[in-house]
Every structure is written in C-alpha cells, then in structure tokens.
C-alpha cells in the first residue's frame, strides 16, 4: 500500500508543476490526454509484475521471461512512436475522442518525450516481480520512494527554469524519475537474479507461448481498466464548458485515486487471508466496509471544507476558475472510495476461490455501465464533472453488484448440494 500511495503522489507533483507555469488549463487538459493515451499503450506491460512473480522460478525461466519482456516493450514502443510522430494522434484524439485541436497539439511533444515510457515501466515491473517473489518487497518501496524524490527534484528544477511549457516539464520530469527508478530497481535485482536456482532436470522449460498464454488475459484485463480514462475524456469533449472540465478532470481523478488508495490493497489482503481460511470472508467484508466508509467520509471532508481550496490554490496553484469544477467532481464522486473498496474485496473473494472468469466478466460489466452512463450524460448534456464521476461510481457499483450476485448464487447452489439426498 505504501508503494502505491507513493506512486500516486506523482500526480499532484506534476499537476503542481503545470499549475505554476503559463496556460495551466490547456496544459492540464493536454497532460490528461497524453497520460490516458500513454497508459493504454502501456497496458500490456503493467501485468509483467504479476507474470514475473508467477513464472520466474529459476535461471532458465528468468531468461525466457526477460526475452518476452523485451519483445513486449519493443512492440509497445513502436506503437507509441507511431502515435506520437504521425497523424494517427490526430485521428485518435481529434477524430475518435473529439478533443480540441490546441489540446491535441500540446500533447504531441509530451508523447514524443515519453517515447520510452512503456519500455521503462515494463523493465521496472519485470524486475519488481522478481524482487517480490524473493521476498524483497521493501526494495520495491524504496525504489518508488527514490523515484518520487527524483520527480520532485526534476519537476522543481524544470518548472523553475521557465524554459519549457508545463506539459513538457511534466513529461521530462516523469521520464527522468522513471529512468532513475529503473536503474535503482535493476541494481536491487542483480544479486537476487544471481542467486536464482538452477532448474531441476525434471522441470519443464518455460516457452514463449506458455508465457503468452499466461500473460494475455492479465494484459487484456488491464487494457479494459485503462480504457476508462480516454473514453471519459472523449465524453467530456462533447459536454458544456469542455475546456474547463477537461482541465479539471485529471485533478479530480487524482484526488479520488489518492483517497481510494486506502482500499487498494483489500483485494490482495482478501486473497491471502481467504486462501488460509474461507471463513474469514465475512470479517474481511466488515473491515472493507469500515475502510470504505472512512475513505468516503474523508472525501466528503475534503470536498465540503477549505481543505480543497488549500490543495488547489496553495499546493497546485491552479486558476481559481477551475475550483468549482473540481469541487463538484469530488463531491459527486464521494461514494467512489467505498464502492471501489467493496469491489476490491469481492474480486479478492472470487480469486481466492479460483473463480477468475467471473472477475473478468464483472470488469466487462463495469466498463459497459460506465460507457452507458457517459452516453446518457452526453445525450442529456449533463455537467461534465457529474457525468464523469457518476460513470466511475456507477461502474464500481455494477462490478460489485455483479460479483455479489454471483457469490449469492454460488452459496445457494452449495447449500442445495449439501442437503441433496445421497
């Protein structure tokens, strides 16, 4: 959890750098667009951490996974280059997503600077997985902390020089921080890799096709999750006051993401605890409800008090014109931390029972519900902040409801089976 919270703190740091430079509204919106596109391209490599944890058991498996990681990284980098350096960006961002031309053109240099973004993330996630498998989780947290320090230093120096537009400051600072973390993580992993065991004579050789079959469902799930951001940006482009809502939405999303962080580890905790004893499901649910209500209460506290003004005005130094949009988004999204915590618990309970198929189904339901709410918001011309936050809230609720109903049906069938005459 600490590693995740350190990582999400990057958002406020970069948004604060953009807010201190010229034309912050345009550059905040363009940064949101650039990051949403970069993360969609990045989706195949994010789960390299999970694949690495699961498959890197010996030196032969390590070499096979490293080859797979390099191929995936290279493929994604080519896609990133095509998007950043060709008219494809205009086709995707202007044509498909309806984003304003000035915003698209401002995002292009950032995407070009971030050409190796996916490769660095993939490299880092691969070696983080090895560290975690070997019980060196604290080194992953140290790497994330060093990355945050590098980001703070780079963004402060670049913003202070006032020689680059805000979005390019954010892009360069992010890339510098990522490069530092990759180097540190690799140094941490070198002695661990050297001590990997040799495979036993009876251990089957890990092939590229086996890695592909294992990794593809994980990557597809991540892609579905990350598609939510560009889809939301596309919807906001068709709603009133799109320039301000597109600038305010990344800030709202980051605030809610930080507050949701309190419940992000619930899935892993639930899996670990229920693998030991399935009867722990209900106590874990009660704990999840407690964490969820605490996070939602904290969200309301931020949205209803001067804390939000202090954050947007003093820390991020954003234009006052964005303040009402950000407050509206935070308040309408107040239920998101509770619902996302419940969804994390429900996913964990299904994974603990080895029912991973229903988890993928629930994520599909979540994405469909989100798209429907966005479509309704665009059709009725509802406020952009209300539409965006309700789409995420509705998506989490739909995911939890689907998993809850599946759990109830499973329990009913189990009870019927237990009383059936032999």
Helix proportion of residues, in percent? over 70%
Distance between the termini: 48 Å
Give the domain tally: 2
**Could you say which overall geometry the principal axes of the C-alpha atoms support?**
globular
Q: Radius of gyration from the CA trace?
A: 22 Å
Approximately what portion of the residues adopt beta-strand conformation?
A: under 5%
Uncertain spans: none
Query: Structural class of the helices, strands and pairings?
Result: mainly alpha
What is the residue-mean pLDDT, rounded to a whole number? 90
Number of helices: 20
Note the run of SSEs as H and E: HHHHHHHHHHHHHHHHHHHH
Largest sheet: none
How does this structure look, described?
Helix 3 crosses helix 8 (117-133). The protein has helices spanning 2-8, 10-19, 24-46, 48-55, 59-85, 88-96, 101-113, 117-133, 137-161, 166-194, 208-226, 228-236, 242-260, 266-276, 281-304, 307-315, 323-332, 336-352, 356-380, 384-419. The termini are far apart. It is mainly α. It folds into two domains: 1-196 and 206-213, no CATH class; 227-422, no CATH class. Helices cover 82% and strands 0% of the residues.
What characteristics describe this protein?
globular, mainly alpha, 422 residues, single chain
List the helices and strands and how they pair.
Layout: H1 2-8, H2 10-19, H3 24-46, H4 48-55, H5 59-85, H6 88-96, H7 101-113, H8 117-133, H9 137-161, H10 166-194, H11 208-226, H12 228-236, H13 242-260, H14 266-276, H15 281-304, H16 307-315, H17 323-332, H18 336-352, H19 356-380, H20 384-419
